[in-house]
Design the sequence.
């Protein structure tokens, strides 16, 4: 390992080698995945906004500096988590996506500059934006038909949420019927929140009743809205601000500001601190004005959201997989406190990664008591020279636990020794190594257990991942149950989950007779497993736990191949230089690292055997096509040459909006090539293969835009 790779986190992104960047990208991605699961699934955040935001920013910076990494799974593009089974599910007609973040005035200027570049506008072209407080609450979508509230749903995973209609009806600030003039169909997006005064009063009542108190207003609001008994929600003082929309039959205006004013006229409450800004200077000035008044607002906010005002420009800008290009959140600075590092524990993940976790003397930071933080990896510990017993400065921003910013050397206890990262797995005793990149000779920043076939931590963590809410989402088969069933030898592989009931009936030691289980709980578990025998292909792929194939890449692969058998056969044969490998490599956003991981997984005989066993138990649904009425829906499109009416990014976003799959290169699987002036080798290959080629103007006609 070189000195440079050993401290890659301490180096500016532009100084990293590709191997260092790839390793750090993977490490940060694993952290972000854990953060998202904890925050969105249980309303019980595991890591800090400061830690979370810093990880996302570093992640995005790595992808920008090293385009090769864009092909790997980017958890920064992921939204939320699968909704709970406690409520009926609601599929959002228009996805409820998240927002990108910026943290400085200069980054706000960069955001506006990116918008101009994407649209092909000059540096002086006016871009008006709205600026509004970013409420720290629970996102919710209200569906009105003919002016009447008919349904309310949480964001969930961005595509499917929880039906909380009965509970949302108890909020005084949510009208049951809109005033005259509202569209036939209107989905209002907004935030449910709790004021500071209401939060304090609620915790006083909880304490008096001997019940657990809430950590902060955001958790209190989320917990209150997710009550199965709407009478409990009615007793909780919840509020609502409208800020956007989903499906709508006809927009009442063609600007963000105009739509918000229409909302106000319909009887929906919008935040009074929302402003229309004509320049970057006005946007930044409004941010600092809100920042100065933050403590007096009476409710929690964690920044200001800017949105491009012209809806026509919003439509042209479109979305990335996680967030709109036309909006960004300007977050407030983190808060800090000092505490003592009591211990460093090592967790072993499903990929064998050894992750250090800091156990802290509990400390209150910004009103929240925190007691642990991730330390990322051993290089981070060495770079900051973090030792057990050290007094450390921790920071958080918003609603989670801290990251360690630095050590206070003068307060270090006598005899404190440098932390020695374990060289063996703490769970199975196998060697824990840092993989060496064959091309560069540099070591991975992540140390991994080599005992993948014998390490109980990896087997258990893989099963937890398989049953998790973003994968198979098996209610009642949580972490504790999986650990128990694994220890008892009842579930060793994913397919064992689906044969559990049959084996239990034949067993002399029935699960319902074991300590901690009852007849009802076991019956519910078996019913939950049975309900998951049919699963969409993208969630099935994610559940398999293939390295570098998270939710975003699983969705990309599912949309490209459509059915699992086709993907499996192609990946199994995807040796470098083959047509199968070329078919994967041409998928936009999927590069050689993901292709190699897919081949390694599907070509492994042990995995093949388990897949066959699993497919005997479950049915995989093909990926539904987006915009199926579009003439290009489901087709694979390649853009080449200089486009004159669209920027390349805009063309890609537009094609995806019409349900097409955009590929980076031409192959036999390509259906259509859109060629502009200067088209070269891609055009030649398309002509050689007999693939249809059209001009940019013909593209507009084909997609019904002219």
Sequence:
């Amino acid at each position: 390992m070189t000195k440079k790779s050993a401290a890659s986190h301490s180096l500016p992104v532009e100084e990293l080698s590709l191997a260092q960047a790839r390793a750090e990208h993977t490490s940060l991605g694993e952290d972000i995945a854990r953060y998202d699961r904890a925050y969105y699934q249980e309303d019980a955040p595991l890591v800090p906004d400061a830690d979370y935001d810093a990880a996302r920013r570093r992640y995005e910076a790595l992808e920008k500096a090293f385009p090769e990494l864009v092909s790997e799974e980017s958890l920064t593009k992921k939204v939320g988590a699968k909704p709970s089974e406690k409520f009926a599910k609601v599929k959002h007609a228009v996805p409820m996506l998240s927002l990108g973040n910026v943290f400085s005035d200069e980054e706000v200027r960069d955001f506006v500059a990116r918008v101009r570049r994407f649209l092909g506008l000059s540096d002086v072209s006016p871009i008006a934006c709205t600026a509004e407080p970013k409420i720290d609450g629970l996102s919710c979508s209200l569906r009105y038909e003919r002016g009447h509230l008919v349904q309310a749903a949480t964001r969930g995973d961005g595509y499917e949420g929880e039906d909380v209609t009965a509970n949302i009806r108890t909020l005084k600030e949510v009208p049951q019927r809109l005033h005259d003039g509202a569209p036939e169909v209107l989905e209002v997006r907004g935030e449910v929140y709790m004021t500071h005064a209401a939060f304090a009063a609620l915790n006083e009542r909880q304490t008096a009743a001997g019940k657990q108190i809430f950590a902060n207003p955001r958790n209190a609001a989320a917990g209150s809205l997710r009550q199965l008994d709407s009478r409990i929600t009615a007793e909780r003082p919840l509020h609502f601000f409208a800020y956007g929309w989903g499906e709508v039959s006809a927009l009442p205006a063609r600007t963000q500001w105009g739509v918000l004013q229409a909302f106000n006229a319909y009887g929906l409450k919008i935040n009074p601190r929302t402003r229309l800004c004509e320049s970057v200077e006005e946007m930044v000035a409004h941010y600092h004005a809100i920042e100065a008044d933050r403590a007096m607002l009476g409710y929690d906010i964690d920044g200001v959201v800017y949105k491009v005002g012209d809806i026509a420009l919003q439509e042209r800008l479109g979305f990335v997989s996680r967030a709109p290009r036309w909006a960004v959140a300007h977050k407030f600075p983190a808060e800090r406190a000092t505490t003592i590092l009591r211990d460093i524990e090592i967790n072993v993940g499903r990929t064998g990664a050894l992750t250090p976790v800091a156990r802290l003397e509990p400390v209150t930071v910004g009103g929240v008591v925190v007691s642990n933080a991730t330390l990322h990896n051993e290089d981070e510990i060495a770079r900051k020279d973090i030792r057990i017993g050290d007094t450390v400065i921790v920071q958080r921003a918003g609603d989670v636990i801290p990251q360690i910013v630095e050590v206070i050397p003068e307060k270090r206890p006598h005899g404190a020794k440098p932390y020695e990262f374990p060289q063996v797995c703490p769970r199975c005793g196998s060697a824990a190594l840092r993989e060496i990149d064959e091309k560069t000779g540099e070591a991975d920043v992540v140390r991994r257990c080599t005992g993948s076939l014998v390490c109980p931590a990896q087997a258990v963590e893989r099963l937890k991942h398989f049953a998790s809410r973003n994968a198979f989402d098996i209610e009642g088969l949580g972490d504790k149950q999986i650990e128990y069933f694994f220890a008892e030898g009842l579930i060793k592989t994913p397919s064992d989950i689906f044969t559990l009931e049959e084996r239990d009936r034949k067993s002399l030691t029935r699960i319902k007779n074991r300590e901690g289980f009852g007849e009802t709980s076991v019956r519910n578990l078996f019913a939950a497993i049975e309900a998951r025998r049919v699963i969409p292909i993208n969630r099935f792929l994610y559940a398999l736990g293939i390295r570098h194939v998270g939710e975003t890449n699983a969705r990309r692969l599912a949309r490209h191949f459509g059915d699992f058998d086709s993907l499996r056969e192609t990946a199994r044969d995807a040796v470098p230089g083959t047509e199968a490998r070329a078919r994967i490599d041409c998928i936009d956003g999927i590069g050689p690292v993901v292709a190699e991981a897919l081949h390694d997984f599907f070509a492994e005989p042990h995995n093949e055997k388990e897949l066959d066993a699993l497919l005997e138990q479950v049915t995989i649904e093909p990926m539904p096509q987006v915009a199926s009425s579009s003439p290009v829906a489901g087709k694979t499109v390649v853009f080449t040459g200089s486009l004159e009416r669209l920027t390349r990014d805009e063309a890609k976003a537009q094609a995806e909006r019409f349900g097409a799959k955009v590929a980076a290169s031409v192959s036999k699987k390509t259906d259509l090539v859109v060629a502009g002036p200067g088209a070269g080798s891609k055009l030649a290959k398309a002509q050689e293969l007999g693939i249809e080629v059209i001009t940019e103007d013909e593209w507009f006609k084909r997609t019904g835009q002219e």
Remarks:
- The longest helix spans residues 18-42.
- The CA atoms of residues 513 and 519 lie 8 Å apart.
- The two ends are 58 Å apart (CA to CA).
